[in-house]
Write a structure and sequence with these properties.
Blueprint (H helix, E strand, L loop, with lengths): L3 H14 L6 H18 L5 H9 L2 H8 L1 H12 L3 H5 L3 H13 L6
Amino acid sequence: MRDYVKAIEAVQEAAEHDETRAHTKEIQDQIWKCQQAQFAQREGESDEDVMQRAMRDPEVAQIMGDPIMQSILQQAQANPAALQDHMKNPIVRDKINKLISAGIIRTR
C-alpha cells in the first residue's frame, strides 16, 4: 500500500516481540527496504516540504512540540553520539524512530 511509515512501525513492533532474536536479520532487511522505498518516494522534497508533510501527522506534531524531545534533538544536533544514550529509553527511541520515518531526522 506504499505506506512505508506504518510498515516500518509494524516491523519495529515485530522486533520487540522477537525475544530470541531469531528474526533479527530479516527484520533489519525489511526496515532497510522500507526506508529505501521511502527515500525514493520523497526524492526531490525540500526540507520545508518534508516538515509540512510530517507536521500533518498529529503524533509527529506532538513529538516536535514536546520540550523534552526538543532538548534531546538539540543535544543530538550538537553531539550525535549523545543520541545513542537517549535511544536506550524505549519511549524516546520510539519517538526518534517516528521522526526518522517522517523524514525529520535523517540517517546516513
